[in-house]
Write a structure and sequence with these properties.
14% strand; alpha+beta; Immunoglobulin-like; four-stranded antiparallel β-sheet; 3 domains; 6 helices; 67% helix
Length: 231
């Protein structure tokens, strides 16, 4: 099984890593122990440093829990090579490790970019929600103001009409009171004073054709004797 795949399948109880090497599959010696879960790079570097592939053909990676008990293990083997071959293998491993590191760096950068993009999208969504709520609030305020202005306009119009009616009613009442006060003593002098004090009575009287006709006839009648005297 591939080392990277086995690392991905480790249970949560695995907390430490131990490495063994040997020339015989059944006789391996522990060469290094990690107090943590070693990465693939750490494992391969340690194995190579202890002669894996050059002096030893077999290796075993063991993962332990906090109590030191084995929870997973992986046996590996590789052909032994001469010095030149070992050097080539070392170069190949170094190249592979560099490639793996580069891939992981690229993945980390990509993940960071994705996180930033997601954060920006979430902030944009939150801002859009805030603007939508602000627009709704402003529209509600505008509608409330418009309704208030309409109500005020109606109240002002009603108050104007009410005041006009009140003024007219007071004028009529005043005239009626004056009339009742002089009803029992309606003399020419009293009538003259009434018209002087309330000239609006004349305005109302001239609107009545019958009254105008009577007044006109009386004026003409009063002028006839003067005309005859002049002759």
């Amino acid at each position: 099984m591939d080392l990277a795949l086995r690392l991905e399948q480790l249970p949560e109880s695995a907390t430490r890593t131990a490495l063994k090497l040997g020339s015989n599959r059944t006789r391996l010696t522990q060469v290094q122990a990690f107090d943590h879960l070693a990465t693939e790079e750490e494992i391969m570097d340690a194995l190579v440093d202890h002669g894996y592939g050059a002096d030893y053909q077999y290796s075993k990676v063991t993962w332990l829990n906090a109590k030191g008990q084995t929870v997973k293990s992986l046996a590996m083997s590789t052909p032994l090579k001469n010095e030149e071959g070992s050097s080539d293998l070392s170069k190949t491993l170094d190249t592979m490790l560099l490639l793996v590191a580069e891939v992981r760096r690229f993945t980390a950068v990509q993940n960071e970019g994705n996180e930033r993009l997601m954060s920006a999208l979430l902030k944009s969504q939150d801002r859009n929600d805030e603007l939508r709520e602000q627009v709704i609030e402003e529209r509600s305020t505008t509608l409330a103001l418009d309704l208030a202005l309409q109500q005020t306009s109606k109240e002002d119009d009603f108050n104007y009409k009410e005041k006009a009616l009140e003024t007219l009613s007071n004028g009529i009442q005043h005239a009626a009171n004056a009339y009742m006060a002089t009803k029992n003593q309606l003399t020419p002098e009293a009538l003259k004073n009434l018209v002087k004090n309330h000239p609006e009575i004349i305005d109302e009287l001239v609107k009545d054709e019958e009254i105008v006709s009577i007044i006109g006839t009386r004026i003409m009648s009063s002028k006839l004797p003067e005309s005859e005297d002049a002759k």
